[in-house]
Amino acid sequence: MRITYWIPVLFLFFPIVKSTAQQKKYVIHTVAFYNFENLFDTINDPATFDEEWTPTGLQRWTFDKYEKKLGNLARVLSEIGSAENTDLPTFIGGCEIENRSVLEDLVKQPKLIEKDYGIIHFDSPDKRGIDVALLFQKKKFQPTSYSNIPLYIYKESGNTSESKASFEEKTDDELQISTKNYRVYTRDQLLVTGFLDGEEINIIVNHWPSRSGGEKKSSPFREAAGALNRKIIDSLQRINPNAKVITLGDLNDGPYNKSVKIGLGAKAKKAEVLPFGIYNPFEEMAKKGFGTIAFRDAWDVFDQIMVSETLLQSDYSSFRYWKAGIYNKSFLIQTSGQYKGYPLRHSNTEIGFSDHFPVYIYLIKEKK
What region, left, alpha or beta, does residue 119 occupy, with left being phi > 0 and alpha being psi -120 to 50 degrees? Predict the structure, then answer.
């Protein structure tokens, strides 16, 4: 994987020098997403399959380990996008979250508590009990509505154990299939609408179905997730043709897969994005060899943030997309062993960070 670092060019705002030598100043907000990888508390919830993440479970998940995990995540979240914005992210989308309680513990960590993050979270039907959520700085963003939108997908009737017998990729995130109606239980999509410095913004947080059972067999589930995402965006645009939409998450697919390219209709180049279209800055990164997750020494960009065409326009009197990045600092990378060079995840001997690198974009607006 190629690792590069953005060159610092601004802090809370940056100048653009025009031919008249007059400088303009811009407000900047960071929008981030991070797969928290198994952010479980130590308490056994009888309604979910979380026994592994308890003191007596396979992971021997103690309170001390949990506290270390929270501190590690807080460190990462406090530094995402800091090269060009010294403030912490205004928005943080997350996934692999057991419940609201772990988020309440996370936002109270010393590196985050001063920003007074709000939490939007719903319990989803995922059988492991992992959910998506949005954290936001209360002083900058005021939510007006939020809802969890379920993804209804079904496996063809038959032997529901087939997926377990045909794994092509190692994953903790096995698809859970009902033996009654063959529904595949997965995460809801979280839609949040509110005002950022007086402007309405819509954010969708995603964690699409895993590749449990193999990429090809499970692809229709993620294609359905992409189609649902597109349906949500279409509904927002019907209400307001000028709606500004950000969709982000761990998609378990790369930017070039059908779920993103066809289901969502995302484009790799700004010039290709038509009105009501979606731009995906992470497709070009994937083509250049960047990655957010590794498997068998192959890198892919499962974690993505995409924006609607309304955030690409050249009039900076309101918020627009500026640029995107993958946060892959050296302390997040495994330095030895079989997985040298991979994201530094949790193991029985070390409390790491995550098996994913986080991603981010910047929104900017001309300062009045």
Answer: beta
Strand partners, 307: 246, 279
The encoded tokens of residue 291 equal 């990655």
Read off φ and ψ for residue 365, nearest 5 degrees: -150, 140
Nearest to 355 by CA among 279, 304, 292, 313: 292
The alpha-carbon radius of gyration of the chain (Å, integer) is: 20
How far is the C-alpha of 249 from the C-alpha of 229, rounded, in Å?
11
Nearest to 238 by CA among 187, 202, 205, 211: 202
Residues 116, 41: contact at Cβ < 8 Å?
no
In this prediction, residue 183 carries a pLDDT of 87
Question: Nearest 5 degrees, angle CA 45-CA 46-CA 50?
Answer: 55
Dihedral angle sign, alpha carbons of residues 302, 165, 170, 350? positive
CA dihedral 320, 323, 326, 329 (to 10 degrees): -110
pTM of the complete model: 0.90
Query: What is the structure's pLDDT at 213?
Result: 86
* DSSP secondary structure, 46-84, as one string: TTSS-GGGSTTSTT---HHHHHHHHHHHHHHHHHTTTTT
Write the pLDDT tens digit of every residue in 78-126: 999 999 999 999 999 999 999 999 999 999 999 999 999 999 999 999 9
User: Which phi and psi angles does 257 have, rounded to 5°?
Assistant: -75, 160
Backbone angles phi, psi at 134, to 5 degrees: -125, 130
Q: What residue ranges of the chain have pLDDT lower than 50?
A: 2-21, 157-170
Q: Which amino acid is at 326?
A: I
Query: Contact 308/277 with Cβ under 8 angstroms?
Result: yes
Please give the Cα distance from 211 to 218 (Å, whole number): 6
What pLDDT is stored for residue 149 in this prediction? 98
Q: 260 near 253, Cβ under 8 Å?
A: yes
Nearest Cα neighbor of 292 from 244, 248, 262, 241 is: 248
How confident is the model over 254-291, as pLDDT tens digits?
Answer: 999 999 999 999 999 999 999 999 999 999 999 999 99
Q: Which helix (H) or strand (E) holds 203?
A: strand 199-207
